[in-house]
Amino acid sequence: MISMEDELRQRLASLEPETVIVHDDSAAHAGHAGAQGGAHFDVTIVAQAFAGLGKVARHRKVYALVADLMPARIHALSIKALTPEEL
To answer: 0.85 cut: is pTM over it?
Structure first.
């Protein structure tokens, strides 16, 4: 079975990112009620696909690719979506 981190990377690949960093932050949230339903992830993605888009539109692009994983496998997803020029 593929890890959740690798699955996130595979799904985000359609955005042709230059960089994808996935961090499982679940341990920091252990014990709260929502953590029982899925993992917590921080994702940083750098892709030209975000050019000309505001923050909300960028996040929507990411969420559209992983929506079926929420909330069962992913409880929370923190997204930092940048263009290469914004680094």
So the answer is: yes
Alpha carbon distance 2, 47 (integer Å): 24
Q: Domain limits of the chain? A: 4-86
- Distance set, CA 62 to CA 49, 50, 52, 65 (Å): 11, 10, 15, 5
Query: 48-72, pLDDT tens digit by residue?
Result: 999 999 999 999 999 999 999 998 8
CATH number of 4-86: 3.30.300.90
Q: Tell me, what's the pLDDT at 10?
A: 97
